Amino acid sequence: MDFETISSSFKFGGQLGYASAISGGLSGGAVTKLMVHPGGKFTPGLVVFSLLSYLGQGSWNMVERWHLSNQGKKESRSILQRMADSKWIPLRSLSDNDFKHILNEKILSMEVEIALLDDKIQSLEDERAAVAGQKGEQSSQDGRPKAC
C-alpha cells in the first residue's frame, strides 16, 4: 500500500495527523505511567507525545507533498552539490581550473611576501655592516683594541 492510496482514503493533513496524535499520545502516556517512578502521571505524557506525534505527522505530510510535486523533475546534482551551490552555505564547489587558479594566486602572494622579506633582510644586513664599520673606525681612532 503506497502513500497515495493512504492519503486518498484520508484527508491529506487532517485525519492522518489526528490518528498519529491519538496513537502517539496513548503510547506516550502509557510509557510515562510505566517508566516514571511509582505514581507516574499519564496525562503529561499523553499531552507531550500527542503534540510531538501531530507535529511529526504534519512535517512528514509536508515533505511527502513536496516529494510528490517534484517527483517528475529529475535533479541531476547530488544533495551535496546543491548545498554547495546554495547562497546560505559559506562553502562553494570548485572546478579543477578554479582550484588551480586559487592555488596559483596563493603561490604568487607567498613569492611576493618572500621577496619583501628578502629585501628587509638585505637592508638589515646592510645596516649591521654599516654599524660594524662605524665601530671599527671608532676603535681604530681611539687606539684601543675593541672589546668583544
UniProtKB/TrEMBL annotation:
Superkingdom of source: Eukaryota
Chain positions covered by the region annotation Disordered: 128-148
Protein name: Uncharacterized protein
